[in-house]
Structures are given as structure tokens and as C-alpha cells.
């Protein structure tokens, strides 16, 4: 265990943790399934990404973060048979940068979907409030 400053030790530290499961230590020993799942996710993202409009930056960013995280953990699993987790914050389960990338990607995806739905609802309400204009001259 290491922390750059002693006062930081109760809050954040670096550790060396071998994880044969997934995030939060769930499903220990089932890493082979997650190699397969990471491959499926990666293939889906690579095939779907070109179809995402350039303007949809939140979806593009979310998918990029998720792809990077999935590939990072998959490489660990293929090379070592486990994922190395090393960031420990408070009592939160130990995680790594790939886990953070996946989590941040999911948060950006959910936020992007929420904001997009809100924009569409607002447009729908505005289009209902504006009466159609009659082009005929009276």
C-alpha cells in the first residue's frame, strides 16, 4: 500500500489487487466469461461507431471510453488471467483506470440520452404551441 502523503492514506492510496471477477469484486473466478463479453462489446462498438452522427459527441465519447476500458481489462485477462486493480479510495472497492473509463463512459452515455430526450421533448412542446400559419390572404 502506498500514498504520496501520510494524511492522504485514509482517503486514497495505491494497492496491488488481483481481480479474477468484474467490478466491485463480483463474480470472482469467472474471468473467461468476461473476455468473451469484452470481445462482443468491442465488436459492437467498432461496428456501430461509424453510424453515430458527428454531432452526437456525447455518444461518441461514451463509446470510446467504454471501448478503451473493455479492451484494457480484456488485455489484462488474456495476458495475466486476471485484472490488476490498484486505486483505493476510502471504503470504495479497489478499481483501475479501465474500470474508471467504463464507468465514466456509462455516465456520459446516460447523461447524453437524458439531455437528448429533454431536447426532443422541448421541441415537441414548442411545435405544438406554435399554431400553423395560414398562407392564404384574407
Automatic annotation (TrEMBL):
It catalyses: Release of signal peptides from bacterial membrane prolipoproteins. Hydrolyzes -Xaa-Yaa-Zaa-|-(S,diacylglyceryl)Cys-, in which Xaa is hydrophobic (preferably Leu), and Yaa (Ala or Ser) and Zaa (Gly or Ala) have small, neutral side chains. It is a multi-pass membrane protein. Keywords: Aspartyl protease, Cell membrane, Hydrolase, Lipoprotein, Membrane, Protease, Transmembrane, Transmembrane helix. GO terms for cellular component: plasma membrane. The active site is at 85, 99. One of its GO terms (molecular function) is aspartic-type endopeptidase activity. Its EC number is 3.4.23.36. The keyword Transit peptide does not apply. This protein specifically catalyzes the removal of signal peptides from prolipoproteins. Belongs to the peptidase A8 family. This is Lipoprotein signal peptidase. It comes from Anaerolinea thermophila (strain DSM 14523 / JCM 11388 / NBRC 100420 / UNI-1). The lineage of its organism: Bacteria, Bacillati, Chloroflexota, Anaerolineae, Anaerolineales.
Amino acid at each position: 500500500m502506498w500514498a504520496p502523503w501520510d494524511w492522504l492514506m485514509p482517503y486514497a492510496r495505491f494497492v496491488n489487487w488481483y481481480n479474477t471477477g468484474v467490478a466491485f469484486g463480483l463474480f470472482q473466478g469467472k474471468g473467461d466469461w468476461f473476455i468473451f463479453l469484452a470481445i462482443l462489446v468491442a465488436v459492437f462498438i467498432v461496428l456501430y461507431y461509424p453510424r453515430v452522427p458527428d454531432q452526437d459527441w456525447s455518444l461518441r465519447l461514451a463509446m470510446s471510453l467504454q471501448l478503451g476500458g473493455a479492451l484494457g481489462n480484456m488485455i489484462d485477462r488474456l495476458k495475466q488471467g486476471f485484472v490488476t486493480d490498484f486505486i483505493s479510495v476510502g471504503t470504495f472497492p479497489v478499481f483501475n483506470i479501465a474500470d474508471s473509463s467504463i464507468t465514466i463512459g456509462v455516465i456520459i452515455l446516460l447523461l447524453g440520452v437524458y439531455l437528448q430526450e429533454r431536447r426532443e421533448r422541448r421541441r415537441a412542446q414548442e411545435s405544438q404551441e406554435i399554431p400553423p400559419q395560414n398562407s392564404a390572404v384574407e
